[in-house]
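Fig. S4 source data, part A: sequence.
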Amino acid sequence: MSDYYNQLAETLRKRLNGKITDVIVAFHEVTVVANQADLHDVCQTLHDDSAFHCEQVVDICGVDYSTYDNSQWEGPRFAVAYQLLSIKNNHRIRVKTFVDGEPPVVDSVIDIWKGADWFEREAFDLFGIIFDGHPDLRRILTDYGFIGHPFRKDFPLSGNVEMRYDEEQKRVIYQPVSIDPRVNQPRVIREDHRYAEREAALALNAISSANDVASGDKDA
């Protein structure tokens, strides 16, 4: 499978030359990094070209790099990732483009894939990314009166407002958050010892094989 994606990556580099900054093959996956200005053309090619034939968009999501790598990130703060599927060719292609500015703006691809409609609305709602050309760009998960974009790294965990039913006004009202802000515990990554014995056995086998080869060379 990796050979297939390596060949696919070469085809992508040739067909999209000048419109992309990189093509990455890792973990049996291929990722195309498209220029922000050329995103729509890149997606159109991936949809129309028979070598790619990505007739379906599986997901579109935003990424906030503001605290990436201990805040040492120097590129644009936001990115948008598109997960594309070719049923005809039985392969997947990920497209990523970096977006800067406030608000961040990128071209909509709803005219290429109708299924991008709700995905783009979700990324707008949660990250505040504007998809230029979307016919109905509005919130889809949060309330109409919601303030901010909850998947941004600088969004407070407790939010900005809370809502409750007011007995006097006989309606739901918004008010400032009444709970104290809290700090999550840092994530701790612990070593997984379930496979330690197997890894040790593989290491011993590798050493034993190397010794056998060395012994064979000496005998020869």
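Fig. S4 source data, part B ends here. Helices lie at 2-15, 39-48, 116-127, 196-219.
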